[in-house]
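Weekly modeling sync, notes
Attendees: S.R. (lead), two postdocs, one rotation student

Agenda item 3: backlog of single-chain predictions. S.R. asked that every request posted to the team notebook include the full sequence so nobody has to chase files. The rotation student volunteered to paste the first one in as an example of the format we agreed on. Action items at the bottom.

Example entry:
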Amino acid sequence: MPAVALALVAAPPADPSPPPDCVSHDRSGGYRAHVTLHALRRFADRVMGLEPVLEGLSDREAVEAVTGLGYDVPGIRAWLAYYGYPGPRYGARGVVVGRVGLVLQGPRVVTVVMRGA
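Predicted structure, as returned to the notebook:
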């Protein structure tokens, strides 16, 4: 990786976002992963059990439907972004939080899986 790219990765975020409400000790420095629409959709499918409701919808349509059902999509995105960042920071391709697995590609959370499902 070129030195310029390393400098951009190491620079702290200009406007750090707060951690999710469930976090009691935030040592992230405000760094967050980028969360794809596919990851949000798979969270709804696999963690929230909405797969039968969202069947046949594109990722964008599924996320809009979850929002329309009254779920806290920005909160879900913040949770995935918070827990997804340490992985690429330390070279991991995945992060496990309880039974939820986050699959990473670089600084992005690309999908969500459930352990034991």
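Discussion: group reviewed the output briefly. The beta strands are 34-35, 94-97, 100-105, 108-114.
Action items: rotation student to repeat for the remaining queue; S.R. to check formatting next week.
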